[in-house]
Amino acid sequence: MRASGATLVLAVVAAAVLNAAVLCSGGFTSSFVRKVEKTVDMPLDSDVFEVPPGYNAPQQVHITQGDHIGKAVIVSWVTVDEPGSKLMTLNIYYEVGIGHTTRTFWFTTPPAVGPDVPYTFGLIGDLGQSYDSNRTLTHYERNPAKGQTVLFVGDLSYADNYPNHDNVRWDTWGRFVERSVAYQPWIWTAGNHEIDFAPDIGETKPFKPYTHRYRVPYKASDSTAPFWYSVKRASAYIIVLSSYSAYGKYTPQYKWLEDELPKVNRSETPWLIVLMHSPWYNSYNYHYMEGETMRVMYEPWFVQYKVDVVFAGHVHAYERSERVSNIAYNIVNGICSPVSDQSAPVYITIGDGGNLEGLATNMSEPQPKYSAFRGPASAMQRSLSRTGPMLTTVGTVTRMDMPYKLIPCGFSTDSGILLMILQLLNLEQLQSNGCI
Ligand SMILES: [Fe+2]
User: Fold this and answer.
1) Per-residue CA distances from 23 to 80, 421, 433 (Å)
2) How far is the CA of 352 from the centre of ligand 1 (A)?
3) Does the pLDDT value for residue 24 go beyond 80?
4) Which of 93, 105, 72 lies closest to 232, judged by CA?
5) Dihedral, CA atoms, 428, 430, 434, 436, nearest 10 degrees?
6) Which end of the chain is more exposed for a tag (fewer CB within 10 A), N or C?
7) Half-sphere exposure of 259 toward its Cβ, with a 13 Å CA cutoff?
8) More confident residue, 45 or 19
9) For the residues 427-436, what does the mean pLDDT come to?
10) Ligand 1 centroid to 375 CA: how many Å?
11) What separation in Å is there between the alpha carbon of 264 and the centre of ligand 1?
12) Residue 402 pLDDT > 70, yes or no?
């Protein structure tokens, strides 16, 4: 496909719209359980990959947050026959295309950033373009919690599974997810399937298709590369990190994160969420310890700055940690076991969006103490029923010296391990829904 891309930043001028829908109960919202067996990608002539009609029709339309605070969006799309598309804006509606064929989409402007602003995120990773991928996206669209933004934890199209990293599969993926991402922002994280490093076919520059197709507002958070950046959204401060960029001391990512964490004002955004692709705490026998070196570098900061929750993908399964840290080690003392630490984040792996590689089911035994729960969807649902909400501190609490809200009813899940819904509720909503 001879595709030309276009990206524009659109300032958001409409009034903020609060989503008043509240689904308070933690737990799960679907009894669906994904089959364990490997799946296959949908064929190129699938209806979800359909090219929109009309000469040079814009396709693969997607939006993401366009600045640091949510007052802008980045709109991107692809035209096949000729470049030169334009963007016209009309309030929260936007029209892409020029002359022959234009298409219109819309989005909801986010609420102003603030400590009591409710918001609902979808959590999806490792999506791909298989029949199960389509189920995941459908479950997300139909979830009664009505996710407003997707936090995507990496591995988008899996185009690199095809000969020569066939970019046609990047195009099909863009058309497949358009039905959601053209209407609400997805916050992107780079995974290993975005690297597209293929010196055998002369491609020596990593991340080329990903960075050309999926723009992010990294400069707005003083980042120097699109692989690590931050955005504020409602009551959350979201930091995106790159498992596949240099993160050692003195590197650009290290220096950025070192400067970034002190900037987070928990009075304004009480939730501090980190996204990355490769999990730090993973007791499956897949990608085991791949995140270890990054954990060694950054975990002390996560504890110091009291990150709430870290979401990762990569392992095609679900796992949730206790609040633990493993930062006491040095080469002299040999202390290298995770310990309970109420200043530490909860680590959640949600890497089963449905890609063709299938589920991860093989775990190290016995289950490590730090691992609060792991397992297939059916077992996870039993666990949730038994133990209740996933963040267990109730109500408004003060954690260390900062006013801090942990929302006991903040999580629900859909489809077991296919995706999660993260709901940030305010005190009034919690009370009115009987959560506290
Ligand atoms: Fe991955």
Assistant:
1) 42, 10, 8
2) 10
3) no
4) 72
5) -100
6) N
7) 14
8) 45
9) 62
10) 18
11) 28
12) no
pLDDT in tens, 119-171: 888 889 999 999 989 988 988 888 777 889 999 999 999 999 999 999 999 99
Look up residue 66 and give its two tokens. Answer: 């366009």
Name the pairing type of β-strands 149-152 and 411-414.
unpaired
If one compares 342 and 86, the residue with the highest pLDDT of the two is: 342
Q: Ligand 1 center to residue 202 CA distance, Å?
A: 23
Output the CA 348–ligand 1 centroid distance in Å.
15
Lowest-confidence segment of 28-32, 34-38, 251-255 by average pLDDT: 28-32
Residues near 78 by Cβ (< 8 Å), separated by ≥ 6? 3, 4, 5, 6, 58, 59, 60, 171, 174, 213
In the reported structure, the alpha carbon of residue 190 is separated from the centroid of ligand 1 by a whole-number distance in angstroms of: 9
Residues that place a CB less than 5 A from ion ligand 1: 155, 191-192, 314
Catalytic residue among 62, 139, 277, 287: 287
DSSP at 354? -
Report the relative pairing of strands 371-374 and 318-321 from DSSP bridges: antiparallel
In 176-333, the DSSP E strands lie at 186-187, 229-233, 236-240, 271-275, 309-312, 318-321, 324-325
What per-residue confidence (pLDDT) applies to 353? 85
Q: What is the mean pLDDT of the chain?
A: 82
Q: How many angstroms separate the alpha carbon of residue 358 from the centre of ligand 1?
A: 12
User: Which ranges of 114-204 would DSSP assign to H, the alpha helix?
Assistant: 131-142, 168-181
Distance of alpha carbon 94 from alpha carbon 73, whole angstroms: 11
Determine whether 62 is an active site residue.
no
Q: Which two tokens stand for residue 376?
A: 């297939």
What's the CA-to-centroid distance between 153 and ligand 1, angstroms?
Answer: 9
The pLDDT of residue 364 is 92
